[in-house]
Inverse folding.
C-alpha cells in the first residue's frame, strides 16, 4: 500500500479491526519512510451497481455523488460529518440489499431526500430544491408549506405526549 503522504511503498499494518458489522476491515498503517499514519478500509468486492440516469444512460454507482449532494445540502448546518456518513451508509445498504443490480437515479434521490429530511429541515429544502428542480417560487413555497405542516404535526404530537 502506497503512503498517501510521501508515496513510499514501504508501509505496514499497525492495527486491524472489523467495522460495519464485520463487512469490512479498518487497517491503521504506518509508513516506514516518513513515519506518518493513515487508515485504509478493505471491503468485499461485489458486482457493481449500475445507476440508470434520467436520459437512460447507465453509469457505475458512485457513493461520493450521494455524499457530495448531502454535504452541499448540509453546508453551514448543525449536522456532523458522522451523521452524514451514517445516513450515506444507510442509503447504500438499502441500495445494495436490493435483488437488482440496477437502480434509477430517481430512486436514489427519493432515498436521499427521505433521509435528509430526518437530518435537518433546511438541508431538506436545499436538497429538494435541486433534486425536484423547482421551476418557480410557487413550487418552492408549496414544498416549504408541506414541511411546515409536518413540523406542526410533530410539535403537536410532542406536546400531547408531555400533557399525558
Amino acid at each position: 500500500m502506497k503512503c498517501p503522504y510521501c508515496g513510499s511503498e514501504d508501509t505496514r499494518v499497525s492495527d486491524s479491526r472489523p467495522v460495519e458489522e464485520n463487512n469490512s476491515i479498518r487497517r491503521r498503517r504506518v509508513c516506514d519512510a516518513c513515519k506518518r499514519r493513515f487508515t485504509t478500509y478493505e471491503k468485499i468486492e461485489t458486482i457493481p451497481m449500475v445507476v440508470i440516469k434520467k436520459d437512460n444512460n447507465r453509469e457505475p454507482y458512485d457513493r461520493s455523488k450521494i455524499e457530495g449532494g448531502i454535504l452541499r445540502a448540509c453546508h453551514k448546518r448543525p449536522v456532523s460529518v458522522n451523521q452524514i456518513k451514517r445516513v450515506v451508509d444507510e442509503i447504500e445498504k438499502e441500495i445494495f440489499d436490493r435483488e437488482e443490480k440496477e437502480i434509477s437515479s430517481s430512486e436514489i434521490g427519493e432515498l436521499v431526500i427521505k433521509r435528509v429530511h430526518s437530518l435537518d429541515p433546511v438541508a431538506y429544502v436545499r436538497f429538494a430544491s435541486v433534486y425536484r428542480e423547482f421551476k418557480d417560487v410557487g413550487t418552492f413555497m408549496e414544498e416549504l408549506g408541506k414541511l411546515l405542516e409536518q413540523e406542526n404535526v410533530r410539535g403537536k404530537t410532542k406536546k400531547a405526549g408531555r400533557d399525558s
Observations:
- The first strand starts at residue 11 and ends at 19.
- The mean pLDDT is 85.
